[in-house]
Design brief:
Layout lengths: L4 E6 L11 E7 L3 H10 L3 E9 L3 E7 L5 E7 L14 E8 L2 H12 L2 E7 L5 E6 L4 E7 L7 E10 H10 L3 E8 L5 E6 L5 E7 L22 H6 L2
Parallel strand pairs: 2-5, 6-9, 10-13
Antiparallel strand pairs: 1-2, 3-4, 4-5, 6-10, 7-8, 8-9, 11-12, 12-13
Length: about 230
């Protein structure tokens, strides 16, 4: 579906090319070359010109006017819809930018994305949800000026605390411990052992017994205390 996103890791050879490992989104369009031309008119940049990927499709690596990188992609064959709301699948796409109103205009003109609900984050400003006309795909908000614009991808898990424990045990690092978001979900932000930033989205499952308080996280049983939590089950 045009305007929908698919994600793939960019890990192999990234450091050799002088860039940090990262996840990058592939956004399906009807015509890659026409979309690139429209992106340039809207103030975006082309990082890698359109190229044919054997037996896969046509792709171009681009950046929005604030510098967030993504790919425009036309599959060679029709794509089956990706599963949703299942562990291990993509659950949310979040743009960290310097000018979210300009970003919503850019992506709306380029891809047809539209604004949905917005959330007041107090001193942090407004969090704008966007959609293709059905459920929300993700959100956009302004980050501190010291950070570059980037896309952050949230993968779904069943138990956010158990996932935090597995993350640390597997060599990853917690950048932001689990915290609650609207509609009862819990999220965390992390880096994998290669340095790629990503996020997890899930639920906090009830404990079989009293919750073990973690003084380092104000009572939240994150990775630092998850072993104790799970032993109590």
């Amino acid at each position: 579906m045009p305007g929908a996103s698919r994600e793939a890791p960019v890990l192999w050879g990234a450091r050799q090319a002088g860039v940090d490992p990262a996840w990058v989104g592939y956004i399906c369009v009807d015509d890659v070359d026409a979309s690139v031309a429209r992106l340039l008119r809207l103030g975006g940049r082309v990082l890698h010109a359109p190229v044919e990927i054997p037996d896969t499709g046509r792709s171009a690596t681009v950046a929005d006017p604030q510098g967030a990188v993504f790919n425009l992609f036309k599959p060679l064959r029709p794509q089956q819809p990706l599963p949703s709301h299942h562990a291990g699948t993509l659950g949310w796409r979040e743009l960290h930018t310097s000018d979210w109103p300009a970003a919503t205009d850019f992506y709306g003109s380029l891809l047809g994305w539209v604004k949905a609900q917005a959330h007041d984050m107090g001193p942090m400003g407004r969090y704008q949800v966007y959609t293709t006309g059905q459920d929300g795909l993700g959100g956009m908000f302004n980050t501190p000026a010291t950070r570059s614009a980037e896309w952050l991808y949230y993968f779904q898990v069943v138990d956010i605390d158990a996932a935090a424990e597995r993350l640390v045990a597997g060599g990853g690092a917690l950048l932001q411990p689990p915290h609650e978001v609207p509609r009862g979900g819990w999220v965390l932000q992390a880096r994998d052992p290669q340095g790629s930033k990503f996020a997890l989205l899930g639920r906090r499952l009830p404990l079989a017994g009293p919750r073990t308080r973690c003084p380092r996280t104000r009572g939240r049983p994150t990775a630092a205390c998850a072993r104790t939590r799970h032993k109590r089950r």
